[in-house]
Amino acid sequence: MPVVGKVDTGGTFSGALTITRFVNQDGVLTAIGTVTGVLTNAAGTPTTMISTFSTPVNIAQATCSILHLDLGPLSLNLLGLQVNLSEVVLDITAQTGAGNLLGNLLCAITGLLDSPGGLARLLNQILGILG
Questions:
Q1: What pairs with residue 37 in β-bridges?
Q2: Among 79, 87, 102, 108, which residue has the fewest nearby CB atoms (within 10 Å)?
Q3: From CA 61, how far away is CA 53, in angstroms rounded?
Q4: CA neighbor of 72 nearest in space, from 60, 50, 90, 52
C-alpha cells in the first residue's frame, strides 16, 4: 500500500507499506510488516528508510446476515379449506454496536472466524496465495 506524508520537522515521506503476516498477540489480531520509502528532510536531502511495524487490526462489522428464506407460492387444501400463500422472502440481519445485545450475540455466533488466531491463520493463507 502506498504511504505518503509530511514530517513534523519539515520534509516529506513517500514509500510503501507491506503486511507480511498476521499474529494473535494476547488475544488481539495484529498485522506485522515493513515500511520502505524515501524520507526527504526540509533541506531536500533524501534518505532511504526501511522499518518494521506491528499494529492492532480492528474489524468493524456493522451487520451480519442471519437468515435468507425464499419460499415460492404455496397452495394447500386442508379438509376443504383452501389456503393460498404468495411468494415469501424473509431476510434477517443482525445489527452490531453499542446497545444491540441480540445483534452482537447473533453476529458472534454466526462468525466462524471470531478468534484472532483463526482469523490470523486465514489472512496469512491469503497473503501466501497472493505471493
A1: 15, 49
A2: 79
A3: 25
A4: 90
